[in-house]
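Pasting as-is:
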Amino acid sequence: MTTIKSGKTVLISGRQKMAIPSGGAHVRAIEIRLDQLFRDRPAVVATIHSNSPGNTFAIWSVEYNVLGSQTQIVIHATNTEVGIPLDFEFWCEYMVMGKMV
């Protein structure tokens, strides 16, 4: 994870392997915990890629939660071929940017 600060603005970027949640292998999710608290909901930009050519996942949910002194971002994605499970690894690259408290 990389963090860049400029005044009260922070940009955090990283790359994380997506986990298969209990819903099955047709979906993936990551949880990002940040030690920064934001004044407002930060901007979140993410892409998903795999070592498997031809298979794509689309982001369908980005959750934002304040957990005490941390910010939690949860990104959910699903196979674009609805309901088809895949055993390949999928990775999420993300950037979170906003004004700190």
